[in-house]
Amino acid sequence: MSKNSSNIMALVPKTSNKRETVCIFGTGDFGRALGHKLLQSGYPVVFGSRNPWPSSLIPKDAEVLSHAEAAQKAAIIIIAIQRQHYDFLASLEETLHGKVLVDISNNLKINQYPESNAKYLAQLVPSARVVKAFNTVSAWALQSGTLDASRQVFVCGDDTEAKQMVMDIVRALGLTPLDQGSLLAAREIENYPLQLFPMWKLPIFLSLGLTAFFFFYCLVRDVIYPCVYENKDYSFFLAISIPNRICPIMALVLLALVYLPGVLAAIIQLYRGTKYSRFPDWLDKWMLCRKQLGLVALAFASLHVIYTLVMPIRYYVRWRTEDRTISQALNNKTSPFDNTNGWLSDSYLALGILGFFLFVLLGITSLPSVSNNVNWREFRFVQSKLGYLTLILCTAHTLVYGGKRFLSPSSYRWYLPSAYMLSLIIPCIVLVVKFVLILPCLDKQLTRIRQGWERNPQYSEQSNYIINKSAV
Ligand code: NAP
């Protein structure tokens, strides 16, 4: 009973305990915003400033003193000053002895200085305990309270107790501390806010390049060719027809590119007979951005759906239907119902609908809020098994779209096949190779390799040696 109650006591926050004073050096944007938030959370705040007198900008419950006076009042000092002004801290060495100095600074460029700002601070004041924190939170977010985007606070430092003290403050402010280890991690933490969608670069550039290629390809085939040979102006195709040709092509190609690196990795592992030697860098990078590639593919697929929905209300489509009906009436001739075409059309639509449904399911399961709630096996089932099923359905959708026209010589213009035929190349390669890889003889071998078996252990020892040597 007593054990239980002590456990319960441990879980109850010590709200009645008075919070320790926190000192902030610098009364700039971040210092003031953090001071305000700390005061709201019950921490007495004292500012250390070059101008130690109250101002209307500074929270009124906070004290403003000189740096030396303010430092004496607290065990934790948050340095809300730009790195280039740190020098004066060396003259306060004696006052700062044993204090926890929190470096929150950011740089303008990635790896701007030879050492991290936190390391530099630790060198300037060697007797202090330096902790890196808060640099990923913006002053605006602290002030406005909309912290959803930056609730995580990376914390690192060599002194465990000091790091714990800072993490307690982070939690008290309603943020989530993430311990990143020793002060060596500060460099990476400082580079983090300077990165601009690092995982999205390859998918975006690839999509832009492929979109531009398919746009010009369709422009040549569908607009320039009829203009040159039939003297027809189809330039209005640029608004809906060509985008609606490019979107499904891009969705299919990018979806195939999500699964291609996995297939290549399997071939490499089978060839090497081990999983213990590193993949080439380009393959590693490609594998890391598969989720982003998939999401871009989903965006193209969604656009394709929207474009398709407006097809019946297009003037060109309505005109063609009316024209055909009127000419049939004038010639007193109707075309008989073609059952094969009926099947092709319905199968094409059904495959597209099912493919898009699974595509959306894949996108939803890649959201952190969903993927965090499924275990590894469930996640793999959705992303791999359902992913391949989506690729099969979307490839079949495109193949059936070609239907009877597929590979017919009349569909070539200037020897160029229809764009949808090009889009089938990568998906078909991925599916055929995957099919070969799941043949029992290869699948068994691959499973063994992935469980740690090696065909030639000497090879991997040698390669590990090479990897280790190059890492040194
Ligand atoms: P700021 O508005 O320019 O304020 C910096 C403060 O440093 C000044 O108000 C001044 O305070 C003090 N200072 C300036 N020159 C000094 C000198 N020569 N010697 C001593 N103190 C000096 O900058 P900030 O936006 O608050 O940023 C402060 C730090 O937080 C930076 O390292 C920044 O990278 C980091 N940070 C900022 C944000 C943000 O959203 N702003 C987000 C994350 C991290 P006194 O006049 O009171 O001395």
Kindly describe this structure.
The protein has 20 helices and eight strands. 58% of the residues lie in helices and 7% in strands. It has an eight-stranded mixed β-sheet, with helices on both faces. Helix 10 crosses helix 16 and helix 14 runs antiparallel to helix 16. The chain is elongated and about 100 Å long. By secondary structure, the chain is an alpha/beta fold. The site of NADP nicotinamide-adenine-dinucleotide phosphate has 20 residues, from helix 2.
The portion of residues assigned to helices is 55-70%
Taking pLDDT < 50 over at least 5 consecutive residues as the criterion, the unreliable ranges are: 1-16, 465-472
Q: Rg from C-alpha positions?
A: 32 Å
Global outline: elongated
The N- to C-terminal Cα distance equals 56 Å
Mean pLDDT over the full residue set: 89
Short description:
It is found in: Endosome membrane. The chain has 20 helices and 8 strands.
Write the layout of secondary structure elements.
Blueprint: H1 2-11, E1 22-25, H2 29-40, E2 45-48, E3 63-65, H3 67-72, E4 76-79, H4 93-96, E5 100-103, H5 117-124, E6 129-132, H6 139-144, E7 152-157, H7 160-172, E8 176-179, H8 186-191, H9 201-229, H10 241-272, H11 281-288, H12 290-310, H13 315-330, H14 339-365, H15 368-371, H16 376-402, H17 419-423, H18 425-437, H19 440-450, H20 457-471
Parallel strand pairs: 1-2, 1-4, 2-3, 4-5, 5-6, 7-8
Antiparallel strand pairs: 6-7
Bound molecules: NADP nicotinamide-adenine-dinucleotide phosphate.
Cofactor: heme b; FAD
Catalytic activity: 2 Cu(+) + NADP(+) + H(+) = 2 Cu(2+) + NADPH; 2 Fe(2+) + NADP(+) + H(+) = 2 Fe(3+) + NADPH
Pfam families: F420_oxidored, Ferric_reduct
